[in-house]
Write a structure and sequence with these properties.
By secondary structure, this protein is an all-alpha fold. The chain has one domain (11-225): Glycerol uptake facilitator protein. Helix content is 80%, strand content 0%. It is built from ten helices and no strands. It has helices at residues 2-5, 12-32, 38-44, 46-50, 56-88, 93-101, 108-131, 135-151, 159-169, 176-225. Helix 6 (93-101) crosses helix 9, helix 7 (108-131) runs antiparallel to helix 8 and helix 9 packs antiparallel against helix 10 (176-225). The longest helix has 50 residues, at 176-225. Residues 210-224 have low confidence and may be disordered.
Length: 226
């Protein structure tokens, strides 16, 4: 809608800032509404496995269910936009063509690396929201991190799917093959970013910190005994 009502901006920087803040609104609604999001579970879902409380098969089942459900939701929303948006005059098809152009005609390795950054940011967002003490903190963290993803724009499997699928449905020169190419490498990048660079590393740091504190306590107790 931002590109529909304001198709031109004073500079590319202003355009990206506007799009970043618009995309952040959706993330705020999803995260604060505690909706199940695949890119959040690349971090949260891995923690019980690392802690020995769940099996890898459980993680695969969780990821599969949420991923499919999220994609169904994205497809339904893209269809709703494609049908009602132009009819109501609130969506210019070329706007979604512009959004898709920033995500689709990119090499596989670039999409994967961009997806890793987005996955890392989403994992970091999930971690920080869990550590926030109130709704205001959750809101600010979500807005800042989500805006960074939209400003890139970095490849996010769900946000990008809605944009690319809408471009497909509105006949903006994007094919199903283009969408599959985008989604495949974006998903791989998101999973790597969320699991390796957030869940595994932060978990390892937390475990080492916990063990270090336990060791300090044991040493202090021994000193007291002596």
């Amino acid at each position: 809608m931002a590109l529909t009502f304001s198709p031109s901006f004073s500079s590319e920087l202003v355009k990206q800032l506007v799009l970043a803040n618009v995309s952040a609104v959706g993330f705020v609604l999803v995260i604060l509404g505690q909706t199940e999001l695949f890119t959040a579970h690349t971090t949260l879902g891995l923690l019980p496995v690392l802690n020995g409380q769940a099996a890898v098969a459980d993680l695969a089942r969780l990821w599969g269910m949420i991923y499919v459900a999220n994609l169904i939701g994205c497809t339904a929303f893209a269809g709703l936009i494609a049908v009602t948006g132009p009819a109501l005059g609130i969506v210019d098809p070329s706007a979604f063509g512009s959004l898709a152009d920033a995500l689709v005609p990119v090499s596989a390795w670039a999409i994967t690396l961009s997806g890793i950054i987005a996955g890392w940011l989403m994992g970091l967002l999930t971690w920080l929201v869990a550590a926030s003490r109130d709704s205001v903190g959750e809101f600010l963290v979500t807005w800042v991190v989500a805006s960074a993803i939209g400003f890139g724009p970095f490849h996010h499997s769900l946000l990008g799917s809605t944009e690319v699928l809408t471009a497909v449905l509105l006949a903006q020169g994007v094919s199903i093959a283009d969408f599959v190419h985008f989604l495949s490498y974006t998903t791989i990048g998101n999973v790597i970013g969320g699991t390796v660079f957030v869940a595994a590393l932060n978990y390892g740091h937390a475990i080492r910190g916990s063990r270090s504190r336990e060791l300090d306590i044991d040493v202090a107790e021994e000193d007291e005994d002596h």
